[in-house]
């Protein structure tokens, strides 16, 4: 399955350049991400191309992350390379096109499967997309896992996680030896800090000291200061790779205390092979965490950490559990879903056309071959 991502200029996530998968080695590809490594694993798993187009729609996310931040739009315009006009997008060359936010009006008569993620679940378009995909898209990929779990009839919303590729991630970032330490998500530190935002350096340091004393182990973390969306000039090229290297060195990961969201950060840690402690009300945590590591709240954490650290057999069991869940929920099942959706669209189009489009297989064979082409076994 040939895949393309499309994002617009004022989008801080993803690479800041149009780039084809075959053009760069994997880690150099990641160096185009100056912030969070959102969708890098999905890119490696699907060997996807990326296109950056001129700004099409000012979404709620655009206003929050760029337009209301002084100088941010200028920085993005200054450093983003190879911007592709929408008219030059080779959409028909791909089996699957995924956009960040519903930014394109997709053509109606195409064998390509058109889909999109909403970058932020609090964007008003997220709720609207759960009812029906916008702008002629076939699929709204609901990363909060709050939509139907299977393909019924296109167009539709479907629960779809951010895909993972532990094989690629560990090949690039697995350390020779892990530290007997726990990485705390920045939201955990914010929750434990005195201030409501948790961005005070002194409050964060005090929270880390308390957590280290409670867990009786070193605590590593990274602050998002000076804000959730970096605005440095020049951008922090390679920052995403540096983050993954730092995270991979820790034996454990702590993702409790966040107020909302699906808990995607824990999946980063699981892909790197960290033992992950999560909470019961986060969708990704429920999919990935071993029962011994799934907490009701922060008060539940010390006992569970102590129990896991006391048994090497249990630690091995937890890692095997996480790897199996990654393979099932973040690779096999979603890739099969995409194959089913693609086959469904092409079957429907062939039913209304005199002949099936050249190169398109019948439904059962297309679904099977597409799934096989996309699937790669995790370690």
* Residues in β-strands, percent: 5-15%
How many individual helices?
Answer: 14
Q: Which descriptor suits the 3D outline?
A: globular
Structure classification = alpha/beta
Task: Give a quick account of the main beta sheet: strands, pairing sense, barrel closure.
Answer: 6 strands, parallel
How big is the Rg?
21 Å
Average pLDDT reading: 88
Q: What is the string of helix and strand elements?
A: EHHEHHEEHEEHEHHEHEHEHEHHH
Strand order of the largest sheet: 2-1-3-4-5-6
Total individual domains = 2
Report the count of strand segments. Answer: 11
Measured distance between first and last alpha carbons: 22 Å
Percent range of helical residues:
40-55%
Which spans of ≥5 residues are poorly predicted at pLDDT below 50?
Answer: 356-371, 375-379
């Amino acid at each position: 399955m040939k895949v393309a991502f499309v994002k617009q200029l004022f989008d801080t996530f993803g690479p800041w350049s149009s780039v084809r998968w075959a053009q760069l080695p994997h880690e150099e590809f990641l160096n185009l991400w100056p912030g969070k490594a959102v969708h890098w694993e999905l890119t490696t798993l699907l060997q996807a191309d990326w296109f950056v187009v001129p700004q099409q729609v000012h979404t709620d996310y655009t206003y929050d992350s760029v337009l209301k931040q002084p100088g941010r739009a200028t920085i993005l315009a200054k450093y983003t390379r190879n911007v592709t006009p929408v008219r030059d997008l080779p959409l028909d060359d791909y089996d699957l096109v995924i956009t960040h936010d519903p930014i394109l009006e997709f053509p109606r008569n195409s064998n390509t499967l058109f889909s999109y993620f909403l970058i932020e679940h609090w964007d008003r378009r997220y709720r609207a997309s759960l009812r029906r995909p916008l702008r002629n898209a076939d699929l709204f990929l609901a990363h909060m896992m709050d939509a139907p779990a299977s393909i019924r009839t296109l167009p539709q919303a479907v629960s779809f996680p951010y895909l993972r590729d532990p094989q690629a991630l560990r090949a690039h970032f697995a350390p020779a030896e892990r530290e007997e330490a726990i990485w705390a998500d920045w939201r955990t530190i914010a929750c434990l800090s005195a201030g409501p935002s948790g961005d005070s350096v002194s409050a964060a340091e005090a929270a880390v000291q308390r957590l280290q004393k409670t867990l009786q182990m070193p605590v590593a973390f990274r602050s998002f200061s000076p804000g959730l969306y970096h605005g440095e000039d020049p951008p922090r090229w390679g920052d995403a790779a540096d983050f993954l290297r730092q995270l991979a060195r820790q034996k454990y990961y702590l993702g409790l205390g966040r107020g909302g969201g699906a808990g995607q950060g824990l999946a980063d840690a699981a892909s790197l092979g960290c033992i992950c402690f999560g909470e019961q009300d986060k969708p990704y945590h429920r999919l990935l965490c071993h029962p011994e590591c799934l907490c009701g709240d922060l008060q539940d954490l010390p006992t569970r950490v102590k129990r896991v650290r006391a048994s090497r057999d249990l630690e091995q069991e937890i890692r095997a559990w996480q790897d199996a869940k990654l393979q099932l929920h973040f690779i096999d099942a979603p890739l099969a879903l995409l194959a089913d959706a693609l086959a469904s669209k092409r079957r429907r189009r062939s039913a209304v056309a005199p002949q099936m489009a050249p190169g398109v297989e019948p439904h059962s064979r297309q679904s099977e071959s597409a799934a096989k082409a996309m699937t790669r076994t995790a370690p």
